[in-house]
Specification:
The protein is built from eleven helices and ten strands. It is of the alpha+beta class. The protein folds into two domains: 226 residues, Thymidylate synthase/dCMP hydroxymethylase domain (Thymidylate Synthase, Chain A), CATH 3.30.572; 59 residues, no CATH class. The strands form three sheets. Strands 1-2-8-7-6-5 form a six-stranded mixed β-sheet. A two-stranded antiparallel ribbon has the order 3-4. A hairpin with a 7-residue loop joins β1 and β2. α6 crosses α7.
């Protein structure tokens, strides 16, 4: 057993102590550094944060959503996952069909105005229920466009055909494990202007050595307190699933970030997190009867011996 989250805690401290205070798209403000890297040895455990509770169910449902090639939030809502709600909701309230209360800048306003936040939460709850109950509404307003699921599994070609990058990279790992081209990319300049959220996880690359599979992610933008703990666990899970299908052991997950930032309204939460002592990392359990990614369901993926501190809540910047 081992403390696997130390690289993450060290990077948080570095940003708090040495980062640059900057304005940002959400108008919240950040403290950031440019260019950072964390390394996690997955043979020693699974790097799910223990200094705060991280809901693993949300991580695995989101990753399965990506791997299914899905880009509609209905699957997520069916698994009580609200990670992507705000971006779909934004499309709804900015449409001509929306006739409810004014939701302009709902992300910032909900943080500063408790009365408005109550109205916002009620509208968001109604929106989610319509996605679940109404097929036509879900098809129109639950759709996020060419986000990760589409780019990974259904990259559109100029000739009208498509590329399944996940299938291709798994085939390449099996056939040419020495290749330096074991890459999946999500960044398509043509799609950036119309995507609900341009990909933060720009590309990832696999590497095989001594029967072990490693993965490096390049992330252009990382919300260090809320998002990055999910990203660490999600890509570590992805690495485990691909290793299972390719009959390899797991090696390292290497997380490289461009703009690694802490939002200014997360500073107190970060200080609280850094005051806590981490526990040993949990262990990942994958159903031993399944070998192909396509066969895995929620019940086939679990973490064991997950000891953790309590939840620390913080607002999402949209």
């Amino acid at each position: 057993m081992a403390n696997l989250e130390q690289p993450y805690l060290d990077l948080l401290r570095k940003i708090m102590n040495q980062g640059h205070d900057k304005d940002d798209r959400t108008q919240t403000g950040t403290r950031s550094i440019f260019g950072a890297q964390m390394r996690f040895n997955l043979s020693k455990g699974f790097p799910l944060l223990t200094t705060k509770k991280v809901p693993f169910g949300l991580i695995k449902s989101e990753l399965l959503w990506f791997l299914h090639g899905d880009t509609n939030i209905r699957f997520l809502l069916e698994h009580n996952n609200h990670i992507w709600d705000e971006w779909a909701f934004k499309n709804w309230v900015e449409s001509s069909e929306y006739q409810g209360p004014d939701m302009t800048d709902f992300g910032l306003r909900s943080q500063k105005d408790p009365e408005f936040n109550q109205i916002y939460q009620e509208e968001l709850k109604k929106f989610d229920q319509q996605i679940l109950d109404n097929d036509e509404f879900a098809n129109k307003y639950g759709e996020l466009g060419n986000v990760y699921g589409a780019q990974w599994r259904h990259w559109e070609k100029r000739d009208g055909d498509f590329i399944d990058q996940i299938k291709n990279v798994i085939d390449q790992i099996k056939q040419t494990p020495y290749s330096r081209r074991l890459i999946v990319t999500a960044w398509n300049p043509e799609d950036v202007p119309t995507a609900a959220l341009p990909p933060c996880h720009v590309l990832f690359q696999f590497y095989v050595n001594d029967g072990k599979l490693s993965l490096q992610l390049y992330q252009r933008s990382g919300d260090m307190f809320l998002g990055v703990p999910f990203n660490i666990a999600s890509y570590s899970l992805l690495l485990n699933l691909v290793a299972r299908e390719c009959n390899l052991e797991v090696g390292e997950f290497i997380h490289t970030l461009g703009d690694a930032h802490i939002y200014s309204n997360h500073f107190n939460q970060v200080k609280e997190l850094l005051s806590r002592n981490p526990y040993d990392a949990p262990q990942l359990w994958l159903n031993p009867d399944k070998n192909k990614i396509a066969d895995f369901e929620m019940k086939d993926i679990k973490v064991k011996n997950y000891q953790h501190h309590g939840t620390i809540k913080a607002p999402v910047a949209v």
